[in-house]
Design a protein that fits this description.
62% of the residues lie in helices and 8% in strands. The chain has 17 helices and 8 strands. The two termini are 33 Å apart.
């Protein structure tokens, strides 16, 4: 059986989770009126346990979240049992607060049962919803996952706790009010501090990157090569915005239903053409012409008009695209980390020379890299090993000391592996098929920051 190990960041989060649960249960017996709302005092701390729950599921997965939940349950149950034992122990001669203690904590058995039944159900539902959504979305839409999972978890928690804890004590209307208001208020609370939650997740990923199958030999690495588009430079986002500007500038609503229809048709043809280009089956000029000509023809633009339009669309698109500067989240931090650790860093890209330098310039990275190798220089594209060999020669290094970080399984990972390089597959959305040729797969560049820091030479 595989042994389950725990890191320091995970243990810190688990400890905080248990502490929040215990405090919440001790103060949950007090109700507080806030204008039209009636809440329990536990609302000030209990949502923090759900935030920690979300962080653990996001970084460590459902299995470790369940371990944390059961540990929290055990810790809280132990505290409650010790409190009941303290109540029945005979008081000393100077002890005069027995009745006060009984008044406050004498109802704990009922509160305890309600709390832990609600806690187990709510926390498990929260973790399960978070895990299911993450499986579907990959690393995308964390904020939505955190909010939706908390809404489900808090709802189940309140629906179980209040009827059991206060049934027969409070009116039905008061209990219903507590269920609704606490669910909503706790969820709003978590939305309000969502930036903190996101920051914690990123920090934990840096300190303790998720476990992954890794055959990467860090000791060999001296030169780190990065693909540009969708590995460092956020091509998907920048292209999306550029096409919207192009649509407006050329009044393409004359031919396309709307900008989304234009982008969908363009992306479909562009991706197919790039696949052919990367395989060396078409020329750069053919790709540049056809990716705009084909969408125009598809929507019924005459051949003559399409021929007149495509070139200006091509020129303007590249000009607009090169002016955008959005980088992949964590890219600049990763590059700074690699430089600070003493690695040489280069770019190796299939993009066109003029536009790629414009991208680097607009992003403030033009003079950052030790070497920039573009397929235009020798008219050979990745995954052709000749481009990798050319990069090594240009940088005066060798394959044994080189690693490539890239988002494309064919051009970056297969190409790098065939050239004898180590490879890091940046599976950005977490949904693309894995690569058997990758020495390491990550879904977030922040994971690499932690890995390189931990394995620095």
């Amino acid at each position: 059986m595989k042994k389950l190990t725990f890191s320091l960041p995970y243990l810190v989060l688990t400890t905080l989770f248990c502490v929040c649960l215990i405090i919440a249960n001790l103060i949950e017996i007090k109700t507080v009126d806030l204008g039209w709302f009636t809440i329990t005092a536990g609302v000030i701390v209990f949502p923090i346990s759900y935030i920690i729950n979300d962080c653990v599921v996001e970084v460590y997965g459902l299995k470790r979240a369940k371990v944390m939940i059961w540990l929290g349950f055990g810790a809280g149950l132990f505290v409650s049992l010790m409190l009941q034992l303290a109540l029945v122990l005979p008081g000393g001669d100077d002890w005069t607060r027995q009745q006060s203690m009984v008044d406050i904590y004498g109802t704990v058995p009922r509160i305890m049962f309600a709390s832990y039944a609600a806690f187990l159900a709510g926390s498990m539902v929260n973790a399960l919803v978070m895990s299911r959504m993450r499986h579907k979305d990959g690393d995308r839409r964390f904020s939505l996952r955190a909010i939706v999972s908390s809404l489900f978890g808090e709802g189940i928690d309140s629906l179980i706790f209040f009827p059991i804890a206060f049934g027969g004590i409070f009116s039905v209307d008061t209990i219903m009010s507590l269920i609704i208001t606490q669910t909503l208020l706790k969820t709003v609370y978590e939305i309000f501090i969502l930036p903190v939650t996101i920051g914690v997740v990123k920090k934990v990923k840096q300190l303790d990157p998720p476990a992954t199958s890794c055959t990467l030999d860090f000791a060999r690495i001296k030169y780190v090569w990065v693909d540009l588009d969708d590995t460092i430079w956020d091509f998907a986002n920048n292209s999306h915005r550029s096409l919207a500007t192009l649509f407006e500038r050329h009044q393409l609503e004359r031919h396309f239903k709307d900008v989304d229809a234009f982008r969908e048709i363009y992306y479909r043809h562009n991706h197919a053409l790039w696949d052919l280009y990367n395989q060396g089956k078409i020329t750069r000029e053919f790709l540049q012409r056809e990716r705009f000509l084909r969408p125009l023809l598809e929507v019924g633009v005459s051949a003559d008009e399409a021929e007149e339009m495509w070139h200006q669309l091509h020129v303007d698109y590249l000009d607009i695209l090169g002016s955008h500067s959005k980088l992949i989240d964590g890219a600049r931090e990763l590059l700074d980390t690699l430089r600070s650790l003493g690695y040489k860093v280069g770019v190796i890209s299939n993009g066109f020379k003029g536009i790629q330098f414009n991208k680097l310039r607009s992003s403030g990275l033009e003079d950052w890299f030790d070497e920039i190798v573009l397929s235009d220089e020798i008219e050979v594209n990745k995954p052709d090993s000749r481009l990798f060999e050319y990069a090594l020669k240009k940088a005066t290094t060798n394959a044994y000391e080189s690693v490539i970080i890239g988002d494309n399984r064919l051009t970056d990972i297969h190409g790098g592996a065939q050239a004898g390089w180590q490879t890091i597959y940046f599976n950005r959305d977490g949904k693309s098929p894995e690569s058997d040729e990758a020495n390491l797969t990550v879904t977030d560049l922040h994971e690499l920051i932690g890995l390189f820091n931990r394995n620095k030479r």
